[in-house]
Specification:
Helices cover 66% and strands 1% of the residues. It has 269 residues and is an all-alpha fold. Strand 1 and strand 2 form a beta hairpin.
Length: 269
């Protein structure tokens, strides 16, 4: 009896090797979309044209804005948890904290310089030189408050690093945590500048000014108390965070007044 045999399926030809494109940045042959050596998008790197620019500008702005808004929103909503997750490695959707602080400090200073804000009443004609210098020092500090805060980031980080040792974060991680907090606080202060301009010269100016000035220390206190509570009980988290922020702001006030007086004195001469 004849045995029926099924014809074996035809052998498939080996898949053709994926076409490789040279990376225009480093020269590496790349079969996929992104270069494994430098990370450049190989398939979408082409000659720059006007059409390319018009397409790229809104695309780039959207990605930057999305990262900024996400980082600020999450930090304002749940600061302790956001810092903890960021330091644990959840960073893809966030804007870089130090870059965020620098960007918002610049925006704050530009708005303060551009808008007509009367910080103090016009000095009387017979004001002493010392009173005049104090007024000018206050104006300088107000204009460059964002940058003065940035300069003090290491001091704030040193304070929480020294007093919140159970968190086991290194100094660079404390610096990053303060940058996240300061970035969110600066975003609120940027929004307060138009309010200050609108209240300028009226009785409402001082309340708005003091509320805006207290945003950063109050938010720092909240954020680091939340961050510390898994490692410390709430009373200990409160006093340790509070002491670190208080010492930081005493030093910040001294630094602020010294720099402002030196700057005003230098320009006066």
């Amino acid at each position: 009896m004849e045995t029926l045999t099924h014809p074996s399926p035809p052998l498939e030809a080996p898949a053709a090797a994926a076409a490789q494109h040279p990376c225009l940045n480093c020269g590496q042959a790349v079969p996929e979309r992104f270069c494994t050596r430098c990370g450049q998008d190989v398939h979408h790197t082409h000659r720059i044209t006007l059409h390319h620019l018009l397409h790229d500008i809104p695309h780039s702005v959207w990605h930057v804005d999305r990262g900024i808004l996400f980082t600020v929103r999450e930090t304002l909503r749940r600061p302790g948890s956001t810092i903890r997750r960021y330091l644990a490695g959840e960073r893809a959707a966030h804007y870089r904290p130090l870059a965020l602080v620098l960007l918002l400090a610049g925006v704050y200073s530009l708005l303060v310089l551009a808008l007509p804000i009367q910080l103090v009443a016009p000095r009387p004609a017979g004001a002493s030189a010392q009173a005049t210098q104090m007024i000018e020092a206050n104006r300088f500090a107000f204009k460059y408050m964002g940058w003065l805060c940035v300069a003090m980031l290491p001091v704030f980080a040193l304070g929480t690093w020294a007093l919140l040792r159970r968190l086991r974060y290194n100094l660079a991680e404390h610096l990053t945590a303060h940058a996240l907090v300061m970035g969110a606080a600066l975003a609120l202060q940027v929004l307060s500048v138009p309010l200050l301009a609108g209240a300028s010269g009226t009785a409402a100016f001082k309340p708005v000014y003091y509320v805006a000035a207290l945003l950063l220390p109050a938010f720092q206190m909240l954020a680091f108390t939340q961050l510390a509570t898994p490692a410390y009980r709430l009373p200990a988290a409160l006093w340790r965070s509070g002491l670190a922020i208080l010492v930081g702001f005493v030093l910040f006030s001294l630094f602020n007044s010294t720099v402002s007086e030196l700057a005003v004195g230098y320009h006066g001469h």
